[in-house]
């Protein structure tokens, strides 16, 4: 075989390999996009849960909370000016979780970014409405929070009763 034929064959192999790699990379991107699709209104709290949140808001004279299609109520207290997450974004946040009696059951700052879809549905539904640096108060019906699960600490003490409405104040600190 002549050198010219070998070079031509190598060039065709290289082009075919690059084409295959490009198609493969496109498939990977396509899979990620499919995997990250999220419908914030697909799961809705029951009417009884929504009515319970409404009753809490009325009893506490909270008149500016907005109802999301899922049944979460929210108040954006600081809009923020940075990046705005999508449901599949990784976020950093500082938060305080309260029971309906006002007592804190959890508070902290994420030690690392979490994918928003890995958090409770109430967060996943509402945090895309806030930009980095923003703050929101969430009034989450049980089915969009921890549902029928009891939350217990390391000593097996009850932290949060099953089917509890949750109230979170969340500061969005980063979006990736």
TrEMBL record:
It catalyses: [protein]-peptidylproline (omega=180) = [protein]-peptidylproline (omega=0). Belongs to the FKBP-type PPIase family. It is an enzyme of class 5 (isomerase). Its EC number is 5.2.1.8. It comes from Flaviaesturariibacter amylovorans. It holds the Pfam family FKBP_C. Residues 1-25 form the signal peptide. InterPro entries: PPIase_dom_sf, PPIase_FKBP_dom. The keyword Signal applies. Residues 88-176 form the PPIase FKBP-type domain. The lineage of its organism: Bacteria, Pseudomonadati, Bacteroidota, Chitinophagia, Chitinophagales. This is Peptidyl-prolyl cis-trans isomerase. It comes from the Bacteria. Keywords: Isomerase, Rotamase, Signal.
């Amino acid at each position: 075989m002549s050198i010219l034929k070998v070079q031509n064959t190598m060039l065709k192999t290289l082009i075919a390999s690059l084409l295959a790699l490009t198609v493969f990379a496109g498939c990977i991107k396509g899979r990620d996009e499919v995997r990250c699709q999220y419908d914030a209104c697909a799961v809705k709290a029951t009417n009884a849960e929504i009515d319970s949140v409404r009753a809490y808001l009325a009893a506490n004279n909270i008149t500016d909370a907005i109802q999301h299609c899922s049944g979460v109520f929210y108040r954006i207290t600081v809009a923020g000016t940075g990046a705005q997450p999508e449901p599949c974004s990784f976020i950093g946040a500082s938060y305080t979780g309260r029971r309906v009696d006002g007592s804190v059951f959890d508070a902290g700052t994420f030690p690392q970014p979490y994918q928003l879809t890995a958090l409770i549905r109430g967060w996943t539904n509402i945090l895309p409405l806030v930009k980095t640096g923003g703050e929101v108060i969430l009034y989450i019906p049980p089915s969009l929070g921890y549902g029928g699960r009891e939350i217990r600490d390391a000593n097996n003490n009850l932290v949060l009763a099953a089917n509890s409405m949750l109230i979170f104040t969340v500061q969005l600190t980063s979006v990736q």
